[in-house]
Every structure is written in structure tokens, then in C-alpha cells.
């Protein structure tokens, strides 16, 4: 495990300066050549990870914070391919994953191997892992199998496509939910109007952010917001008490991953934008 991040109370969040907020919530480096990077968050015990398979296969191993014989002994795992097309082997069974497709791996799987991309090109894999109380089958989810909706409008600068990949309306999971949102050209706002959901936390991974562009991610209670400037291929941990919305200097995409006790995607507490402070 590369790093452990402790849970933070909203009263403690208020007193943090910019650098302290970034150290607590922002994950700046996820992809290192031929390595697996993992951050363990005490918010719902989620693990945020990235693999860059460039020249060799990368296996996912357990580490001391898990106190387990293998990584998925008591966990489930969701992977989304975010750079080239790739392949993941689960206990000897290979799954080809195209760009933006997902793979769900259930509890108990022992050998997880990430392979370089097609034509031996480097492949980037983003993943989330959560504790699991039951065993559900491993399954690949294509973009065609995702539950897809369009929200927002160009007039409000938030026209976006949401692809629900690992959600209970597509396949069974214990608590993990993942999907991706793509902003249309000319739109920059995501998750606007904003919301919170006290029954689960969320992680945002921003990608397809053009060179020399940035995304401003907003967080905190509605009456006490802060912001983090985020670059391409960076992630931010969003506590249950925090809003999570953002605006970019260009359109972009992001992956959302959720952990907690409720699998109802629509379970959220909406916030009227004019009440934000």
C-alpha cells in the first residue's frame, strides 16, 4: 500500500489550508511505469488505485493494512481501462478490456494480473476496491451494457453523458459502484446542481483533461465550500458530508466510484445552487 489516508471530520476540514486540503483529499500520482499504486482511505475503507502496465505484467498483491493472505480475500474490485485497450487475467481467465470498459472482480479471486495494452503499448487501469460480505461473479461490462443517460444542457454548460458500469441495475455487487461521465464539447460543469449522500462516500478520477487545461473540484459542506485544482489523471476523495462538483477550463471525463451502505444510485440529498457558500 503506497499510502493510508485517515477519515476527517468536517470541523477539522474547515481549518485546513490549501496544501493541507490537497494532502488529505487529492491523489496526484496514480500511474507509475510497471507498478501498481494504491491509496487506502478510511472513508468506507475504499482503496483507490492505478496500474500502468508498460513493458511487463503487473500482479495485484495484498499489503500490511489489509491483514489478508491475498488482495481480494475480503474485498471486491472494479477496474476501468483509461489508456489504450488492455487485458486483465483473473485466476487464469483472461478478459480483454477496451478503452472505458469495466471489469468487476468478486471476493475470493486470488490472482489478478494487469497486462500491457494491444501491440505492447502502455495501458492504464484505474480501480476501486471495497470490503465485501458476499461473493459475486467476475464480469466484464462493455459500454453497450452500461446503463446510459444524458443530463444537463449546453445552455447551462453541463450537458453530459453518464455511463453506469458497475451498479446494481447492471450487475450485483456488495457495495462498490462505478461509472463514468463524459462532458460534451462546450460544457464544463459536472454534478451541477450538486448533492451529498451521507450513506456513502465517493471518489472522482478526472481524465481526458486536455493538455494545459485544469478542472476545479468543489468540496465541503454546502455552507462552507473549498476547491481543489486538478490535473489530468488525478483523483479526489469526497467524504459523505461533502458536495462533489467541478468545472473545467475545457470539457473532460471523470470516473466516479462509491462505497457505503446504500446501492440506490438516486439516494442523494440535492442542494439548491443558490444556497452554496
- The secondary-structure class comes to mainly beta
Give me the CATH fold name: Jelly Rolls
Query: How is the largest sheet built, in terms of strand order?
Result: 1-3-4-11-6-9-12
Largest sheet: 7 strands, mixed
pLDDT under 50 segments (min length 5)?
Answer: none
- How do the SSEs run, as a string of H and E? EHHEEEEEEEEEEEEEEEEEEEEEEE
**CATH H level, superfamily name:** Jelly Rolls
Q: Report the sheet-strand fraction.
A: 35-45%
> Helix count?
2
**Helix percentage range:** under 10%
| CATH level-two architecture | Sandwich
Number of domains: 1
**Overall pLDDT confidence:** 95
How many strand segments?
24
Over all CA atoms, what is the radius of gyration?
18 Å
Q: Tell me, what is the CATH class?
A: Mainly Beta
Shape: globular
Instruction: Report the span from N to C terminus.
Output: 36 Å
Quick summary:
With 277 residues, the protein is mainly β. The chain has helices at 10-14, 18-25; strands at residues 3-5, 26-27, 35-41, 47-53, 58-59, 75-83, 86-90, 93-97, 102-105, 112-115, 123-131, 139-141, 147-151, 160-166, 177-183, 189-190, 195-196, 200-207, 215-220, 226-230, 234-238, 243-248, 253-260, 269-270.
Amino acid at each position: 500500500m503506497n499510502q493510508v489516508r485517515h477519515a476527517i471530520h468536517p470541523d477539522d476540514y474547515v481549518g485546513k489550508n490549501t496544501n493541507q486540503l490537497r494532502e488529505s483529499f487529492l491523489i496526484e500520482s496514480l500511474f507509475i511505469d510497471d507498478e501498481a499504486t494504491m491509496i487506502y482511505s478510511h472513508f468506507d475503507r475504499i482503496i483507490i488505485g492505478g496500474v500502468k502496465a508498460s513493458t511487463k505484467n503487473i500482479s495485484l498483491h495484498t499489503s500490511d493494512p489489509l491483514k489478508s493472505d491475498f488482495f481480494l480475500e475480503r474485498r471486491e474490485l472494479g477496474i476501468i481501462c483509461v489508456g489504450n485497450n488492455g487485458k486483465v487475467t483473473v485466476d487464469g481467465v483472461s478478459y480483454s478490456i477496451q478503452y472505458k470498459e469495466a471489469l468487476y472482480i468478486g471476493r475470493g479471486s486470488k490472482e489478478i494480473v494487469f497486462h500491457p495494452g494491444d501491440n505492447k503499448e502502455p495501458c492504464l487501469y484505474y480501480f476501486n476496491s471495497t470490503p465485501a460480505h458476499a461473493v459475486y461473479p467476475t464480469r466484464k461490462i462493455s459500454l453497450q451494457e452500461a446503463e446510459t443517460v444524458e443530463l444537463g444542457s449546453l445552455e447551462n454548460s453541463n450537458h453530459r453523458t453518464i455511463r453506469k458500469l458497475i451498479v446494481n441495475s447492471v450487475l450485483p455487487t456488495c457495495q462498490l459502484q462505478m461509472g463514468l461521465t463524459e462532458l460534451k464539447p462546450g460544457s464544463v460543469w459536472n454534478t451541477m446542481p450538486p448533492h451529498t449522500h451521507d450513506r456513502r462516500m465517493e471518489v472522482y478520477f478526472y481524465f481526458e483533461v486536455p493538455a494545459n487545461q485544469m478542472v476545479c473540484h468543489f468540496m465541503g459542506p454546502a455552507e462552507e465550500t473549498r476547491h481543489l485544482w486538478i490535473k489530468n489523471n488525478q483523483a479526489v476523495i469526497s467524504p459523505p458530508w461533502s458536495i462533489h462538483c467541478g468545472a473545467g477550463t475545457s470539457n473532460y471525463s471523470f470516473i466516479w466510484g462509491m462505497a457505503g451502505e446504500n446501492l440506490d444510485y438516486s439516494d442523494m440529498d440535492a442542494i439548491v445552487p443558490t444556497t452554496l457558500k
